[in-house]
Amino acid sequence: MSEPVSRREALKRLGATGAAVAAVSGTALWLHGRRPRGAAPEPYALPSWAVAKPASAPDLVVARGSPAASLVTAALEEMGGIQRFVQPGDVVLIKPNAAFDRPAWQGSTTNPDVLRAMVAACMDAGAREVLVTDNPIHVPEGCFRKTGLGKAAEDGGGSVWLPRKADFGPVALPDTVLDGWEVFLEPLKRATKVIGIAPVKDHNLSRASMTLKNWYGLLGGPRNRLHQKLDETIATLAGMVKPTLSVLDGTRILIRNGPTGGSPDDVIDGNVLAMGTDGVALDAFGATLLELGVADLTYLQMAEQWGHGASDWMALDTREVTV
Amino acid sequence: MGRVILLLLATALGAFIVAGGRTGPSSLVAQEAPQVVTPFPITSPAGWPRGAIEHYDVDGLFEKINGKADAYIVFDVIDLTFAGYANPQDPSVYVDVYIYDMAEPLNAYGIYRVQRSGQEEAVDAGAEACRAGSAFFGRKGSHYVEVVGSAGSATTEARAVLGAVLDALPAAKEPVRDPAWFPDEGRTRILYARTNALGVESLGDAFLARYADGVRAAVARFASAEEAEAARAEAVETYEFLGTPAHFEAADKLVVGALGSKDPERLKALVAAILAKIKEGL
Questions:
Q1: Residue ranges per domain, chain A?
Q2: Which of residues 74-93 of B touch A (CB under 8 A)?
Q3: How buried is residue B54: exposed, middle or buried, by Cβ count under 10 Å (0-12/13-18/19+)?
């Protein structure tokens, strides 16, 4: 049982407690939401990861047949070999589409067999490490697990980089809708080479989701707000990311109810894969797989008008291989 | 006593700082909805344990289904409730369940129908349901349900979960059925559109039919005969401007239209046939 406390002592203790509350609350408020050194980070200008193109090398390769892994091998060989893109010691960042926590058969994400083959090719070329990443809005761990992309990355010798808040920072893209937008920067800063692998999909808003839309997964922030300017955003992404290589994965094609699909009836076997460095050209080719034309894709027209690529893929040095 | 208070404050401070600095993607995970009574069984019929129940209102729907959200918003979706069941012996084999509350049975009918290819196999699950591969789809009352099996080995369980979920969902007082207005011959699909039927903005609350020869027909419903006549006039004007053959007629509070054929007589005959069937039913 405690001793009785005098009025003076009670007031003293109350005062001490009040002071402690004020001190702790003040400290908490000071610490909460505090930015290091009090300054907003400077917007970061992304470099280009493109490599020089040998005169004899094609601009775009279309590989047809199956299995999916063989398409990767055949297309890379026709492009001039993986060594054209990846040198020993490189840190390669591969960006598949892992946007949904759904099984691979739905065609809403990159085919794991394609990813596995590309990771392995980069490792065979002597890459120091191959990082596989995406920023799905919803539970990245679940997305990489259910799509099979996490296992495929590891099977190929790479590792998955799951997004953390600290990985994001503003990007410098003056006079665009994305200037100052939060981007998944840390893996991009670490990478010496960047490869995108995007499925061919119907999309409810932009009509198609292919190599250029795939970079949308590098964005952070409240990106659903960008859906009001989706075409403009995708066209801007075409200028934001200058990859070493882009892969259009048409091994499975989600022809309706995109971008998620849901039924096997929404997916057809495309048995095709295209590679190149011009995302506009690749998407223009991919549009044909969805029975669309450049005129149907506003973002593609905008990207071309802004000088981010050429939609007339047939006018380029395009080569076909069959597996 | 003072020490206890200070200890509590220090604990609160720590929790406050941790919460304030919580930055991982886990902060994006939808919270389990404790107040929501769900139709999800605690385990699947084979005993696969249920994962956390996730709940997304219309503003948060994007977090789960991204750009597909708009397809549901068109049909006035209220929310999505999700849960998964994983095989404890092999977690790569799982069943995911998406239950969309579409507010009205007609909306559930609309979203169910628009996402079907017509190639699915019908499933007897006590409500309109079908299957494609290891994915199952159903609607009951104002709910639309998708049950997705990860692979062929999850198919049996996915079917069982669909049945359990549909059994638990409330039925509509008056279930929505296909209208008998559209002639059967050559008809491939019946759909429902909240707005913009046959590409005309004012043609809403409409049942649509598609035919194998590419012809599309619609029956749009209005609150008054005047509104129906105004919508018919807009539809006619639209297609005259486009130079595309189409035929529209108003009948009381309805507008019946057809397009998709170069033969005006084919369109006119179809509209007449639909109107005759409507009159038969009155």
A1: 1-34, 49-322
A2: 92
A3: buried
